[in-house]
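Sequence decides. Our protein:
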Amino acid sequence: KLIVGLTVRVAQHVPGAAAFLKDILIAEENRYKSVLLVGPPGVGKTTILRDTSAILSAKDAYASDVVVVDSSAEIGGAGRVPDPCIGLARRMQIPFDMTQADVLMFAVRNHGPSVIIADEIGYESDAEVIATIAQRGVKVIATGHGTRLSDIAGNNHLKGLVGHPDALQKRRMSEPVFQQALEIRRRGEFYFHPDVA
């Protein structure tokens, strides 16, 4: 076989990248509220997600009840031992013969987490499983591509995450899976939605 290209992804740990979210993430009134991070590629969604893992898995928060489902080894790094940047969270990598949706359900069924962290929710199967997980009372912190929350609402595969909005009837067809959202419009520019509904 001829190798025609090589992709190298370098994750960067930026301690404190999610510090501005800490009070929101661990507030008692937000204990079961899921948060969706929305933004185009390259604005720092995964960097913030990585630091969010450290915040939520701290001893004064959820500790080891946090599970990171790491689809491309970008959150916790590659290898058997996860990078310390994810704190006390447990990390599950996705084997080649499974999908992210499979591993998300496996994590909930077998590890009983209080929080699931996942990067790049992009497929309908991911969205369906995330909805199922949230209905079981698990807090979900995840990322999705789009420039605004409205991009998620307009994506046929992901619109269920924000309640299946119907523009013609001007209403939602269901409750949002993610109760809160953070738009990362560009590096360092954020817009927080405290109530997606």
The chain has a mean pLDDT of 92. Strands lie at 35-39, 66-70, 90-93, 115-118, 139-145, 165-166, 171-172, 180-186, 189-193. Helices lie at 22-26, 45-56, 100-111, 124-135, 149-153.
